[in-house]
Specification:
The protein is of the alpha/beta class. The chain has one domain: NAD(P)-binding Rossmann-like Domain (Rossmann fold, 3-Layer(aba) Sandwich). It is built from 7 helices and 7 strands. Strands 3-2-1-4-5-6-7 form a 7-stranded parallel sheet, with helices on both faces. α4 links the parallel β4 and β5. α1 packs across α7 and α4 packs parallel to α5. The chain starts with 7 loop residues before the first strand and ends in an 8-residue tail after the last strand. Bound molecules: nicotinamide-adenine-dinucleotide.
Length: 249
């Protein structure tokens, strides 16, 4: 028995954290649809879920394209009979690590950041919500970032976008709480990826209370709890999973 038995979850955005969350959802008994603009990136996690006896499908999904989002939600519902959870996890990071400030960020990069990280999350939510409500309620989870609430020297557009989805999260939690929809944001700190800059690693070692880089499974554990009935009284929250880099009242 898993904590997500009989639930159907759409994860948008594979990669380090998306794969780990999809795997954990599958391991807990959920049927998982994993979508990514690069469909081939979904293959590994989908295969692993299937090999473990679970149900999973990998699809092409462009979170910025309304027709693509709509089709993905429809495929999920047609295939598995409904939708209990949406996890919007995808991201665009166009600003370089040593990059630009408000004075010189190329507008094309700024606009794309908002298109993917903000408008994309709104589109996914808009199309998933009616099905979650029809199911009698469920969970919407956004992957935000610690960058949403920090003063940053660079990559400010990314931080702005991650703050904007926290506001969207509060709206969804407030407006649809009566429909038994819960909405939360996870704000990861520095989480291991195949390619990491030394500067990024140094941030974790300097600012964390727990002196290690996070693992995608650190995010997946809280994501699974939020999707499950064990999280049924948690909504409207930003949950920092960052080794104590952020401590709030
Ligand atoms: N890794 C970290 O240290 C860290 C820290 C804070 C927040 N985050 C957040 O966690 C989430 C996952 O990050 P990750 O580190 O696993 O990154 P990742 O690059 O491994 O995964 C992101 C995925 O999003 C997909 N994607 C991009 N544009 C898309 C679109 N338009 N439609 C659908 N898919 C699209 C990419 O193809 C990629 O597979 C992101 O939202 C990121 O901002 C990560």
């Amino acid at each position: 028995m898993g904590k997500l038995d009989s639930k159907v979850i759409l994860v948008v955005g594979a990669g380090a954290i998306g794969d780990a969350c999809a795997l954990r959802y599958g391991a807990e008994g959920a049927s998982v649809v994993l979508g990514d603009i690069r469909a081939e990136l979904t293959a590994q996690a989908v295969q692993a879920i299937q090999d473990a006896g679970g149900q999973a499908v990998g699809i092409h999904l462009d979170g910025t394209d309304e027709a693509s989002v709509e089709a993905a939600v429809k495929l999920t519902v047609d295939r598995f009979g409904g939708l209990d959870g949406l996890h919007a996890n995808f991201t665009y990071v166009g600003e370089g690590i040593g990059g630009s400030s408000v004075l010189d960020v190329p507008l094309a990069i700024f606009d794309r950041t908002m298109e993917v990280n903000v408008r994309g999350f709104m589109l996914c939510t808009r199309h998933a919500l009616p099905h979650i409500i029809a199911r009698g309620g469920g969970a919407v989870t956004f992957t935000s970032s610690g960058a949403a609430t920090k003063g940053v020297m660079t990559r400010f557009a990314y931080g702005m976008s991650k703050a904007a989805i926290q506001s969207l999260m509060r709206h969804v939690a407030t407006r649809f709480g009566d429909d038994a929809v819960r909405c939360n944001a996870i704000a990861p700190g520095v989480i291991a990826k195949p390619v990491m800059h030394d500067e990024t690693k140094a941030i974790a070692m300097n600012f964390n209370a727990i002196k290690r880089i996070g693992h995608p499974i650190d995010i997946a554990s809280i994501a699974a709890l939020l999707m499950s009935d064990e999280g049924s009284y948690i909504t409207g929250q930003v949950i920092n999973v960052d080794g104590g880099a952020t401590m709030r009242p």
